[in-house]
Amino acid sequence: MQVALFIPCYIDQLYPRVGMATLEILERRGCDVVFPAAQTCCGQPMSNTGCNSDARPLAERFLEIFAPYQYVVAPSGSCVAMVRHHYDEFLAGRPGFEELKAKTFELCEFLVDVLKVESWDGVYPHKVGLHSSCHGLRELGMGKPSELVGVDFSKPGQLLAMLDQIELVKPQRPDECCGFGGTFAVNEEAVSCMMGTDRLQDHLSAGAEVLTAADMSCLMHLQGLSGRKKMPLQIKHIAEILNESEAKS
């Protein structure tokens, strides 16, 4: 199975360990992973800000670079949601675009839905809080939002629950936004910080020692707030936890 690894800008520049953890997880599961060196930003920051003329060439470039591969996997729900749900404005009708949408996955949903992972030989003896980021939850369907009726599920939570000695703690408001929202955190700084602080306090009250998510952008925001307030909370992407757990087992 050939997988092209798409690494978001902020992971490439600030959290390369998350990209390496994703690579190691996929390789251990038999994937032939390639990293197209010509890849650029997916264009989400420009699109969210209304700068569509700047986002369009990045979408076109993404299609050109990743169309040849069997699968595209990224450790980021928001970037994958950009490709699957927001590229239509730029690429509708282009050859290969529908195929690109169908084969682009966030890491956790790729592990659950494509590789059909049902067990994980890993140990992680910590109390872990899972932040369900908005894009993954409501655009990719990686879990059940609280506003919908139905069976409760979470693909990231399903993977974490496979680890030995882990204790998943649940906040009172499990799918509330962290307040990051890209440029929202810049334009509405005070509101963004209050939302993020509320998220952190909710997880701390539930007993979390480690806070994780499938989006490093959300965790970047929460890590900044947690660090400034000196909260006793580790912040780790789910790829880091899954990869570390295997190393310990």
UniProtKB/TrEMBL annotation:
<dbReference type="GO" id="GO:0005829">
    <property type="term" value="C:cytosol"/>
</dbReference>
<feature type="domain" description="Cysteine-rich">
    <location>
        <begin position="3"/>
        <end position="83"/>
    </location>
</feature>
<dbReference type="Pfam" id="PF02754">
    <property type="entry name" value="CCG"/>
</dbReference>
<dbReference type="InterPro" id="IPR004017">
    <property type="entry name" value="Cys_rich_dom"/>
</dbReference>
<protein>
    <recommendedName>
        <fullName>Cysteine-rich domain-containing protein</fullName>
    </recommendedName>
</protein>
<dbReference type="GO" id="GO:0016491">
    <property type="term" value="F:oxidoreductase activity"/>
</dbReference>
<feature type="domain" description="Cysteine-rich">
    <location>
        <begin position="128"/>
        <end position="223"/>
    </location>
</feature>
